[in-house]
């Protein structure tokens, strides 16, 4: 199974669906609105938005990775899926009532430019809703896994796991939004959970669905990491053997009102 299928099969239900609903709620959708989801991945935010807006809704999902877009198209053909760069969105000014970006901002090479593009394509009175992870230190299980990757594979592997948490500062997030031209900015930090069948399943998903794409992780190293994680994170395993880990994220909204 390739990384895109792993992402949709494992990460989306365990982690991202919960937060997609929160991003959509922050966007404040109303019937008849149009929306573009930037860095859509396999499309969970766009799909949840389309469900809320109802049949015939004008929803676009755009991502730079063709494989992600193709997978999204296979799940929800009624949404307009596009391959494109967040730094140069292929839409006219003021094209959408709402813009969303779920956990994509931290991966953009020029974050201010990408946010400025989101601002450009949203209509006056519209809203941009963005989610990013809180600091790694406040996402304990991921911090533990990063340290295990450092020890068993190398710092490059640990740093790959740290990269999604690179916008954990609310001050930095606020600065980026204002530098992109937004004035009305609100940021809320919220707690949630992720649920995996087991610690092993979580570790293997993180390695095969993310870290292993860029760094070679030997099977023996994976086994050592699993064993250590099972010892260090045992308190997060419930009576049904599911691994339920706490996660924290920032939800930012900015509008042009």
Outline of the structure:
The protein is of the alpha/beta class and about 260 residues long. It has helices at about 5-25, 45-55, 65-75, 110-120, 140-150, 155-160, 170-180, 200-210, 220-230; strands at about 35-40, 60-65, 80-85, 95-100, 120-135, 185-195, 245-255.
Search tags:
257 residues; alpha/beta; Rossmann fold; 2 domains; seven-stranded mixed β-sheet; 9 helices; 44% helix; globular
**Adjacency order of strands in the biggest sheet:** 3-2-1-4-5-7-6
Average pLDDT over all residues: 94
CATH architecture of the largest domain: 3-Layer(aba) Sandwich
**Rg of Cα set:** 18 Å
What do we call the CATH topology of the largest domain?
Answer: Rossmann fold
Helix and strand pattern: HEHEHEEHEHHHEHHE
Largest sheet: number of strands, sense, barrel closure: 7 strands, mixed
E-strand count: 7
In DSSP terms (H or I, runs of 4 or more residues), the helix count works out at 9
Distance between the termini: 45 Å
Bin the strand percentage. 15-25%
- Shape field: globular
Structural class: alpha/beta
- For CATH, the homologous superfamily of the largest domain is named as Vaccinia Virus protein VP39
Provide the low-confidence segments as ranges. none
* CATH classification class of the largest domain: Alpha Beta
Question: Would you give an account of this structure?
Answer:
This protein has 257 residues and is α/β, with parallel strands linked by helices. It has two domains: 1-133 and 167-191 and 248-257, Rossmann fold; 136-163 and 198-241. The protein contains nine helices and seven strands. The chain has helices at 3-27, 44-53, 66-75, 111-121, 140-152, 155-162, 170-179, 199-209, 219-232, and strands at 34-38, 58-63, 80-83, 96-102, 122-133, 184-196, 243-255. A seven-stranded mixed β-sheet has the order 3-2-1-4-5-7-6. The longest helix is centred in the N-terminal third of the chain and has 25 residues, at 3-27. The mean pLDDT is 94.
